[in-house]
Specification:
Strand content: 25-35%
Order of helices and strands: EEEEHEEEHH
Keywords: Hydrolase, Magnesium, Metal-binding
CATH topology: Nucleoside Triphosphate Pyrophosphohydrolase
Number of domains: 1
InterPro entries: DDP-like_NUDIX, NUDIX_hydrolase-like_dom_sf, NUDIX_hydrolase_CS, NUDIX_hydrolase_dom
GO molecular function, one term: metal ion binding
CATH superfamily: Nucleoside Triphosphate Pyrophosphohydrolase
Cofactor: Mg(2+)
Number of strands: 7
Low-confidence stretches: 1-6
Organism: Mucor saturninus
Helix content: 10-25%
Shape: globular
CATH class: Alpha Beta
Structural class: alpha+beta
CATH architecture: Alpha-Beta Complex
Radius of gyration: 14 Å
Number of helices: 3
Mean pLDDT: 92
Length: 159
């Protein structure tokens, strides 16, 4: 499924706050993100966590009520990682649990075929990004098992 989001739709500043966030019937926050794959290098993009030092994650963030899940995934990937491209297939939805083992969010991951890598992006002042092969991505994402499951469910996983 393609995205109708044009690159000019993105503001220079990242969205903040949760007042427009989508929650399900169980009051679980709905989140969207991307497995961003560079077709030229066949590497996947990971970014530094904004909360924990030396932890790497896939770009994702809150789905807001004025956008589709696909639009939220593309927007968050641009805001956090500075890449834009074509949204592809839904990889699946994955539950992220809090420290107490309670569902914190339901994360919808899409594949994104990278078409542009920006030198500046809304969160570039405090996020690093890394391009990884499959084994590297699985190692860097070791603290985020649900993100490892998403990578394994994607076309990026070895056949």
């Amino acid at each position: 499924m393609g995205s109708n989001t044009s690159y000019t739709d993105y503001p220079a500043e990242a969205r903040t706050g949760r007042e427009n966030q989508v929650y399900d019937d169980s009051n679980i926050r709905q989140v969207a993100g991307c497995i961003a794959i560079d077709p030229n290098t066949n590497k996947v993009l990971i970014i530094s966590s904004s909360k924990r030092e030396n932890v790497w994650v896939l770009p994702k963030g809150g789905w807001e009520d004025d956008e589709t899940k696909e639009q939220a995934a593309a927007r968050e990937t641009y805001e956090e990682a500075g890449v834009r491209g074509q949204i592809g297939n839904l990889v699946g939805s994955f539950i992220d649990y809090n420290y107490y083992g309670e569902p914190k969010s339901n994360v919808w991951f899409y594949e994104l075929k990278v078409e542009e890598i920006c030198s500046q992006w809304p969160e570039s002042s405090f996020r690093q990004r890394k391009w990884c092969n499959f084994d590297e991505a699985m190692e860097y994402l070791r603290f985020k098992p649900f993100m490892q499951r998403a990578i394994l469910a994607s076309s990026f996983a070895p056949k």
